Amino acid sequence: MARTILVPHDGSPHAQDALEYVLETFPRAEIVLFHAIDPFDLTDQPERSPLTERWLDDRREDTAELFDEALADLEMGDATVDTETAVGSPGQTIVAAVDDVGADQIVVGTRGRGNVAKARVGSTAELVVRRADVPVTVVR
């Protein structure tokens, strides 16, 4: 039986490290590359009105590009990679996605795009570790 691993990705180097770790460590896994569209994060697109259909369509296009960049030039081996997206607060949305995709495990990077440079484990990763009902691996 293949293992299904949820890998949250926000475009950060830490998230990319987590994806590469999964591909190397679980070469036959079913990987779900996941992105939470955070409706409260408007820093990278201040010109777009939040929570409109146009805004959501634009964010989904951005997410498709994020996935393409994350998967470019990676050696996939026998792993299968699906992509999923949901709208909501990243930590909570990641935890909820476990049931939606049937994940057996989560592999997450230590820090994302946040500005907390001194944090050892990012707030999203910490929330996921505390609330997930499946094993969580934090990749440094």
From TrEMBL:
<dbReference type="Pfam" id="PF00582">
    <property type="entry name" value="Usp"/>
</dbReference>
<protein>
    <submittedName>
        <fullName>Universal stress protein</fullName>
    </submittedName>
</protein>
<comment type="similarity">
    <text>Belongs to the universal stress protein A family.</text>
</comment>
<dbReference type="InterPro" id="IPR014729">
    <property type="entry name" value="Rossmann-like_a/b/a_fold"/>
</dbReference>
<dbReference type="InterPro" id="IPR006015">
    <property type="entry name" value="Universal_stress_UspA"/>
</dbReference>
<feature type="domain" description="UspA">
    <location>
        <begin position="1"/>
        <end position="140"/>
    </location>
</feature>
<dbReference type="InterPro" id="IPR006016">
    <property type="entry name" value="UspA"/>
</dbReference>
